[in-house]
Amino acid sequence: MCPKYRFNDTGSGIVSQFGTEARVLAEMVRSGAPTRAELAQRLGLSKASLSRATAGLLSRGFIHESGLVVSGGPGRRTSALAVRPDLGYILGGDIEGMGVRACLIDCTKTVVASTDRPVGAEWSMDRIVCTWIEAIEEVLAGSGVPARKVIGLGVGLPGLVSRDSVRFHAYLPPGRWVDVAVGSALGSFGLPISAANNVICVSEYERRLGLARGHGSFIALLVRYGIGAAVYAHGELIVGEQSFTGELGHMRLDPHGPRCICGGKGCLDVFASGRTLPPEDARSGDIWDGQLVERARWLGVGLANLLKVYHPPLVILNGIYNAYAGGMGPALEAALGDELTPLGIDVPELVFGSPVVLKADVGAALRAADAFAEPYFEALLVDGHDAE
Ligand SMILES: [Zn+2]
Fold this sequence. Notes:
Nucleotidyltransferase, domain 5; 10 helices; Arc Repressor Mutant, subunit A; binds zinc ion
């Protein structure tokens, strides 16, 4: 028998000797599950299969006993396992109308290198994309991590993101709609790529590492250049059959209001987006306080319209208003109350995400790890590398 293969538990066929070990590693990276019992349950493996896999991974030094003792079930304490941080790395990047960013995370989801570059309102689309590619190159080069140890590249994109190629349709500086294919530019890294709308990436960060941990149902808002929303129900992101839309910013609130970038009138975007934010030096004092309350009112009406249809117990807000949570929060809550209370609908818990600039990038990288970690680890095991 080929030494790389063995018969599986039932003897009904052959499976890669390393397939189970790769699955275990990928699950440890994905969920951070620390115990053999939890890993076996998550992967649907028998205790014997899981023990064989962890023994193999321990002998190679791919995982180690972390030294922590955690609950292993009623009345049991068990030693926790941890994946070696430098076993592989994942690149994350995001592009939007106010900036481009990139980061590199290790197998424990720790950011080991990052960059954040502002984007000029007068910049051409080519210049924005080139700056982004340079930022990703800079992060990789600055980290000292060899390209062969990078599992994949996850990217967060604005607007409507194509599912079958890395392209998006969005409104970006210098003031026009763009239809941009970034697949060929990103292809220069020679990595597998996963792409999603930025608000999905940020909400993945919150779900896995942030304020939505342990919550199956919530709404995540991202207000940056535009306004996006992602809706989760019972642990699943709600996506239409064709594509993710999430364009909360173009919910029309006043049919006779100011003209929006989409061509319509009175969208939420014209009242509350980052695109329409006053310059930074004008964001203090009484006039700004009044503007903030007005913006909160519009955002509250838009969010309440969504909550009238679907009402999870938690709403997480990220983006430009997190720096002004003290003024925005109470006004937003009051606006939600005005809209929802007469209908007998409770105002959900409203929280502002912690100020992590790289949320979209880390979330994009986590999505890429979900997609590409298992084949990466299997190749690593088959090649017999010790990952040094
Ligand atoms: Zn619009």
